[in-house]
Amino acid sequence: MSQQVVTRFAPSPTGYLHIGGARTALFNWLYARGRGGRFLLRIEDTDRARSSPEATQAILDGMAWLGLDHDGAAVSQFERAARHAEVAQQMLEAGTAYKCFATQDEIQAFRDAAKAEGRSTLYASPWRDAAPETHPDLPYVIRIKAPRDGATVIQDAVQGDVTIRNDQLDDMVLLRSDGTPVYMLAVAVDDHDMCVTHVIRGDDHLNNAARQMLIYRAMGWPLPIYAHIPLIHGPDGKKLSKRHGALGTQEYRQMGYPAAGMRNYLARLGWSHGDDEFFTDAQAQEWFDLGGIGKSAARFDFKKLENICGQHMAAADDAALLHELSDFLRVTGQPALTPAQSELMLEGMYCLKERARTFPELLDKAQFILTSRPISPDEKAAAQLDTVSRGMLRELTPQLQNATWNRESLEELMTQFADARGTKFGKLAGPLRAALAGRSATPSVFDMMLVLGQAETLGRLTDAGQGGD
Question: Motif location ('KMSKS' region) (predicted)?
Answer without folding.
Answer: 239-243
